[in-house]
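Protocol step 6 of 9: fold each sequence in the batch and record its C-alpha cells directly after the sequence line. For illustration, a two-sequence batch is reproduced in full.

Sequence one:
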Amino acid sequence: MNQRATALGLILGLALGLLTSATDIDLLDRLAAGVAPLGTLFINAIRMVVIPLVVTTIFVGVARLGNPRTVGKLGGSALGFFWGTTVPAIVIGMGFMTLAMTLWPVAVEVPTTVESAQELPGLLDLILRLIPANPFAAAADGALLPLIVFTLLLAAATGAVAEARRQRLITFAEDISAVFVRLIHWILWTAPAGVFGLAAPVVAGMGLGLLAGLAVFVATVVVGLFVFILLFYLPAVRLLGKKGIAEFVKGVSGSFVIGFSTTSSVASLPVMFEDAEALGVSPAVSSLVLSLGAAINRAGSALFQAGAVVFLATLYDVPLPFTTLLSVGFVGFVVAMSVAPVPSASIVTLTPILEVAGVPVAGLGVLLGIDRLPDMFRSATNITGHVAAAVIVEGLCGGDVVEGGGTMTDTIEDRR
C-alpha cells in the first residue's frame, strides 16, 4: 500500500469534509455525498477478502505447531509468554482508550445515515453460539466468532494427524492464503481513493471534532504501548529472564529501531538474532522463539485493535456492555496473533472485531489514513516482545532443545 498516496487521500477527504461542514455550498454537499460510493466499494472489497484470509492464516499458524505434546518445553514456554502478555495488552488498550474518551470526549455528531449496530447476544447465548452447527452457514452469515472457534478446532485436529497429511493440508491452506494476500495487496492499492470516499462524507457530518479525536486516539495508543512495555516486558525480563533491565534495553535497541522503521517483524529477524545472541540467548532458543514470535506474537497489535474498537464505538455512539467486551477480547486475542501478512494488517483484520462489537466499519478508512505512526510503534512493541520472550525462555529453560518441534523458520513475510 502506498502510504503517501493514502495519506494524501485522507488529507483531501478531510479538506473536502471540513469545507462542506463549514459552509452551506450545495455543490460541496453533493460532492461529499457523491464520493461516498468509493468508500463503500473499498470497504466491501476488504470484507470480501478478510474472512477467508483470517481463517486460512489462523489455520496455518495453529496447525503448523503440530501435536501440542511435541511442541516441547521451549515452544510451550514461548507460547505461554505470548498468550499471557496478549491478554493484558487488550485490557490496557480498552482501559486506556475508555479513560481517554472520558477525559477528552469526541465532540462530533454522527450522521443519521450511519448503519445501526446489530443486536448483541447475552453471555449464555454467546457461549452457545461458539460452536457452529453449520460452519459454512456461519461463514455465509459473516458470523466470525463461531467460525474462528471452528477453525481453531480444525487446525488443532490437523496438528495431531500424521505428518504427511498435516503438511499437505498446511501447504494447501498456505497456497490459498497466498492468493488472498495478493488480492488484498491489490485492494489496498485502491486505498487512496477508498479513504478519500470514506473520510469526506464522515468529516462533512462530524467536523473538526473528528480531527481532535484522532489526535487523542494516536496519543493514547502510543502511551499505552510504552506503559505495556514498562509494566510487562521489562519486569518479565528481570524476574524470569534474569537479565538486567538496562542491559536488555540497550541490547534490544537495534531491533526496536529496525522494527520501528520497517514495521515488519520478519524484516527485523536478522537483527533480532544478533541482539538475542548479544544478550546471551543460545541459538537453539533464538531460532525457535524469535521465528515463532515473528509468526504469532502480536501484543502491540492487540493493544492497538482493542483501543480502536473503543474509539470507533465512542465515535458512533455504540454501547459496549461487558458481554460485548468479552466477545471483542476473545476475537481480538485470536485475530491479533494471526494478523495477515499485508500492509496495515492490524487495520484490515480489525473488520471482524468491529462486526462482533456491532460497530460500523466505515471508520476504518480514517484509521488507515493515520495508521503509519501507530503501525511503527506497535511493530516496535511486537519486536521488543519477541526478543524479551527469547531472553525469558533462555532464563527458564537454559537452552533446552525442542523435542519433535522444528524451528518455525518458514514464517510468512511481513506479518505485522
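Sequence two, same batch, same settings:
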Amino acid sequence: MGSSGGQPVDSPRLIRADGAIDAAGCAVSPAAMLVRQGRVEVVDRPQAIGQVDAVIEQVRGLLLPGLVNAHAHLDLSGQGIWPPAGNDFRGWVGQVRALRARRTAKEVAAAVEQGIGLALAGGTCLIGDIAGDPAAASINALAASPLQGVAWVEVFGLGSGAAAGIQRVEDICGDWPEQFDGIRVGISPHAPYSCDRSIYMAAADTGRPVSTHLAELKPELEFLQSGSGPLRDMLEHDIGVWSAQVEIPGCHPVDHLAEPLGQCAALCAHCNWIEPEHAQRLAQLGVCVVYCPRASRAFGHSPPTLPSHPWQMLSAAGVKVCLGTDSLLCLDTPDRLSVLDEMRLLMVRDGVDPLTLLEMATVHGAEALGWSRASVCLGPECRGVLLLPAAGATPREMLESAIRGDQLPQWILPPSRSISKLS
C-alpha cells in the first residue's frame, strides 16, 4: 500500500526536529530520529546519523517519548467536569455512586472509550486505570485500544462485607488472566476506610499488580485512629456498610497496611496526608506513589490547605513518584486527560525542575506499571513519540519551554501494540 506521497507506508523515515530528549540521557539539538518498520532505530544529531535512504520529514519543536498516566478513572470520562469537591468529599462520593448506579454496561464502555480518546489526545501511551463496574467494559475497551498498561479491578468490603471482598479478589483471578492483550489485570482494594485489611492480604497473595488509594483524606486518618468522623457517617448512613465487625486499627493508614503493601510492592495513589516516618516506611516497603496534583487541588489537599504536597519528601526518602490525573470529573481540561498538565502545574506553582517532571511522567510511571523504562525512552522499544512546540538553545531549555506552553502534544509516532515490553 502506498502513502499519499507515493512512498510505501513502511518506508524508513528520517524525522528532523529542533531537539529531542528523554529521561534516560538522550538530549540532542538539533535532532534526527530514524524510524524503520514503525520503530525508533536511533535518535542523534543529524550529522551523526549521516545519509540514509529514507523519507525525510522536517518538523519544528521538541521530540520526547509518550507519557504515562499511572492513575486514571476512565469510566468517569463521560460526564464532563464537575465543580471542585473541596471539603465535601462525602457529597462528591454520593454523586459518583448515583452516577454509577444508573449506568448500563454499554454506557460504561462508551465512557471508557471516551477516556481513551482523551488520554491519547493528551499524549498518553501507557495508563493505569481503576476499572469500575462492570470491569469487563473497561478491560475490553483498553485491550481494543492503542493504549497499554494496567487495569486494576476495584474491590470493596468492610466488616461483615470483607468475605465478599475476598471472594471478589478470587473471582477476578478466575475471570481474567494477568496478561490480556497488552493489559495487565490487577486488583485495587479501594482504600483502607472501605476495605478490610484481609482484602489487601488476599490481593497481595495473588501476585498480581495491586493499587490503592492511601492517605488520600484527612478524615481517613481520623477514621482509622478512632472509627469516627465524616467517613464513619458516610459508611454508616449513606452507603449502609457499617457493622460491628469493622476493624479500627488505631494507627495511620501506612502503618495499618504495611504488611500487605510490602508483599506486593503496590502502587499507592495520592498519599496526601503523611509524615516523614511514613515516607521512610513506604520507601523500605518498595511502594511506588502516584501523585495527581490537580485532583489533590480539587479536593483541597494542596496549598494553601497543605504547605506543600509531600511528594518531594517521598522522593527524597527513595520512593519512586510518578504522575496521574485521577478522573476527568476533577480536572480543568475537558479535551484531554494528560499528565502534561500535571507537569505544567508543578512547574508553574512549585518551580519543579523540567527533567524531574519528565522522569516522573515517563520512566517512573512505566516502572510503577510494570513496564520497562525503555518503553518510554527514545529507542527501539519506545511506545510512542511526541512533538511539542519549544524554544531554546539546549534540549533542557526546550523541555522547559514546552512544559510552560499550553499546546497539546502531537503524535509523531503513535502508540502501537506491536511494541510492548514488560520489565
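Proceed to step 7 once all outputs are recorded. Observation for sequence two: The chain is about 35% helix and 20% strand.
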